């Protein structure tokens, strides 16, 4: 319900996103979203993009909320992977509750545990997301591309490193591991 690797400056227009290689929520909690870092452009406090358990839709977050709501309103299918849906159940706009039941998107859930939306699902699979998605991709005859974190790093996803001196040794270690891994492939 958000992304623990993204923090944003909500003072910049448009909002400035920072994608990190570490969990930005270390210092955040229910109704406390400031991460302790600042925007390199305007100096404002950065905040996480998480809807914490117990919060309900009062924030302009999770990230890209308006687009998610618009996409849900146009969807004919909703696929929920690995979520308890305990937080998202409180957002009726995502479930198109204003539409008659026959016009709502079909809901498919893959999760190891019960969710509050199980009874609404067209199909509920109790399983591991990776296993289910591998079976689905095999059935569709599609290959899952290998994830290459060095591509993200080379495109500046983890910028600006200089804003986080206490993280620099960790980031240097990460970059050396990525470089070593890509050289051996």
TrEMBL record:
The keyword Phosphoprotein is assigned to this record: yes
One Gene Ontology CC term in the entry: nucleus
SUPFAM superfamilies tied to this protein: DHS-like NAD/FAD-binding domain
Keywords assigned: Metal-binding, NAD, Phosphoprotein, Transferase, Zinc
Deacetylase sirtuin-type domain residues: 1-143
InterPro entries, alphabetized: DHS-like_NAD/FAD-binding_dom, NAD-dep_sirtuin_deacylases, Sirtuin, Sirtuin_cat_small_dom_sf, Ssirtuin_cat_dom
Cofactor needs: Zn(2+)
Stated family: Belongs to the sirtuin family. Class IV subfamily.
PANTHER family xref list: NAD-DEPENDENT PROTEIN DEACETYLASE SIRTUIN-7 (PTHR11085:SF1), NAD-DEPENDENT PROTEIN DEACYLASE SIRTUIN-5, MITOCHONDRIAL-RELATED (PTHR11085)
Protein name, entry field: Regulatory protein SIR2 homolog 7
Gene source species: Chinchilla lanigera
């Amino acid at each position: 319900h958000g992304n623990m690797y993204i923090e944003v400056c909500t003072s910049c227009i448009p909002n400035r996103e920072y994608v990190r290689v570490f969990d930005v929520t270390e210092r955040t909690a229910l109704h406390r979203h400031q991460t302790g870092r600042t925007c390199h452009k305007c100096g404002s406090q950065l905040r996480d993009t998480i809807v914490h358990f117990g919060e309900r839709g009062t924030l302009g977050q999770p990230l890209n909320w308006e687009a998610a709501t618009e996409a849900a309103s146009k969807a004919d299918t909703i696929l929920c992977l690995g979520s308890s849906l305990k937080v998202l159940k409180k957002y009726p706009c995502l479930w198109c509750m204003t539409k008659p039941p026959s016009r709502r998107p079909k809901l498919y859930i893959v999760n190891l545990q019960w969710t509050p939306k199980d009874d609404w699902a067209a199909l509920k699979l109790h399983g591991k997301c990776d296993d289910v998605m591998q079976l689905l991709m095999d059935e569709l005859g599609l290959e899952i591309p290998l994830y290459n974190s060095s591509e993200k790093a080379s495109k500046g996803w983890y910028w600006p490193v200089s804003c986080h001196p206490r993280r620099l040794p960790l980031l240097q270690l990460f970059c050396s591991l990525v470089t070593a891994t890509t050289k051996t492939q």
